[in-house]
Structure formats: structure tokens, C-alpha cells
Write a structure and sequence with these properties.
2 domains, Alpha-Beta Plaits, 9-stranded mixed sheet, Rossmann fold, single chain, about 280 residues
């Protein structure tokens, strides 16, 4: 089973929950937040494998090109433009759809490859860890996410999704069998949680909610769960102790006060998702 961990907004503690649950459940950890993959900072696996991720982009043979401009007209992403006596290529805008080559009657167009990121994998305490890393300045994360998730072995994974509800998250959810939505008890947290709930409903994925920075009260998120009959999988209390543990390189699950919290969360996950 692949369980996706997502949040409607950044800063809710999604990666904190993901990394600790991966250790609790004993499953592989996959960091799909390729623009800011910080899960390995917490888990600190020994990197054993690296692989570049490539995308294709159009290359114009100016000797063959008749400057008809059809390639620029068909491009929905403005990666090609007719400028004077040449066709200009904006390679970072290319989505590698192949339409430009199809309409080129002069056969003046081919494709080159360029690196946009890399995949890394390693292990820590018998936990396999995988992540994608998008190169700085690259605008499209989806090819790295697809490559990362498409190459995973057929075992149980915890997928740490990008924050928000963008196309990056949607592409990660395509590989998920269930979802954990991490939120915080605030107006902003609840607002963006509602969007995340609608997203997993759209894909008909079973889901539950984890509250991070919980105040221990009957807060707005708990009321929202009760009103909408949503499973509350657990809550991590708001405490400076967690920040101190992380600053010393200690996972929350390794601390005696937090271990029961994640153990209970793990049992609830297995019950709700009928897993194992």
C-alpha cells in the first residue's frame, strides 16, 4: 500500500509526521517535495544511489527550417517563438508533448535532452528512503516526481507529497492508495485543509487527518472532523520539546514521550485503511 501524506499549506508539519510515521510503520519513505526535499535531513540515510532526471526539448535545424511558424503556433506553452529569421526555443517552458515535431512539414525539428534534477536513495535503520531533487531555477517539478514514483519497488511506501493542492500534489496522488492530511488548528490550516479534503475526495482515496501543534482543546479542526465524519488519526501536541529534539538530531519517535503518540497513530492508520 502507498500512503500519501499531504497538507493544504506549507508549515503544518507534514514532513515531521511523514518521517516519524515511516519509522513507526517500518515502511519506505519517499520525499516527493522535490523543490524542497528536507525529509532526508531528519532521517539522514546513507545515500547509495543517484540518478539524473532528463527531459527532452526541441532543437531546430536552421538549414532545413522554412520559417512557417507552425511549431510556434501549436505550442500551448509558448516554448517556441518565430522571431525574425529564426525560431527561438525557450527550453525550460517545453512540456515535451511532441506537438511541434508533428506539425513540422520540413522535418527541421528534433529533440535534445537536458538534466532538470536527480533521484537519490539510501537506507537508515532498515528503512529504504527515496527522494527527488529539482535543480535550482527549473520551473517544472512534475517530471522528477513521475520518475521518482514510477521507479519505486512494489512494496509499502509512505509518500511525502509537496505542500498545497497543485499539479505536483495531484501527480503524487495518482500513486496513492490512501491519504493522511496533516493540518494545524488555525484558520489558515482549516481553510487549506478543506481544499485538500476536496482533492482526495475527487480521486476517491480513503483518508484521515492528523493534527500537528495540537492545543489539546476541542479546536476547530476536531469540530470539522466530527461534523464531516472524518477519521482523526491522531494529534501531535504543540511543544517546544519537539523543536529541541529536532535541533539535536533526534527523531520524535525515538523520544519516550512521543513514541506512544506515533504508535497509537500507526494502529489507527492500520485500522482505518484496513492495512496489514
Amino acid at each position: 500500500m502507498n500512503i500519501a501524506v499531504l497538507s493544504g499549506k506549507g508549515g503544518t508539519g507534514k514532513t515531521t509526521v511523514s518521517t516519524n510515521l515511516a519509522m513507526t510503520l517500518g515502511v519506505s519513505y519517499v520525499d516527493c517535495d522535490v523543490e524542497e526535499p528536507n525529509g532526508f535531513i531528519f532521517l539522514n540515510p546513507s545515500i547509495q544511489r543517484k540518478e539524473d532526471v532528463f527531459v527532452e526539448y526541441p532543437v531546430i535545424n536552421q538549414q532545413k527550417c522554412v520559417l512557417c511558424g507552425e511549431c510556434a503556433k501549436v505550442c500551448q506553452f509558448n516554448a517556441l517563438a518565430k522571431a525574425g529569421k529564426e525560431i527561438v526555443v525557450f527550453e525550460k517552458l517545453c512540456h515535451d508533448c511532441g506537438a511541434c515535431k508533428l506539425v513540422c512539414k520540413a522535418d527541421a525539428l528534433s529533440y535534445g535532452k537536458r538534466t532538470i534534477g536527480k533521484l537519490e536513495s539510501g537506507t537508515v535503520k532498515s528503512i529504504d528512503c527515496y527522494r527527488g531533487v529539482l535543480n535550482v531555477g527549473e520551473p517544472m517539478a512534475v517530471p522528477v516526481i513521475r520518475k521518482l514514483l514510477g521507479d519505486l519497488p512494489q512494496v509499502d511506501h509512505l509518500i511525502d507529497c509537496p505542500p498545497g493542492t497543485s499539479c505536483n500534489v495531484v501527480n503524487a496522488l495518482k500513486y496513492a492508495d490512501a491519504a493522511i492530511l496533516v493540518t494545524e488548528p488555525s484558520e489558515f490550516g482549516l481553510h487549506d485543509l478543506r481544499m485538500a479534503v476536496e482533492l482526495v475526495k475527487l480521486y476517491k482515496i480513503p483518508y484521515g487527518i492528523v493534527i500537528n501543534k495540537d492545543d489539546g482543546k476541542e479546536n476547530m479542526v476536531k469540530i470539522f472532523c466530527k461534523q464531516n465524519d472524518i477519521n482523526l488519526l491522531g494529534a501531535v501536541p504543540y511543544s517546544m520539546e519537539a523543536a529541541v529534539l529536532y535541533s539535536n538530531g533526534i527523531m520524535l519517535y525515538e523520544d519516550t514521550s512521543y513514541k506512544p503518540i506515533f504508535d497509537g497513530m500507526s494502529e489507527k492508520i492500520k485500522e482505518v485503511f484496513q492495512w496489514r
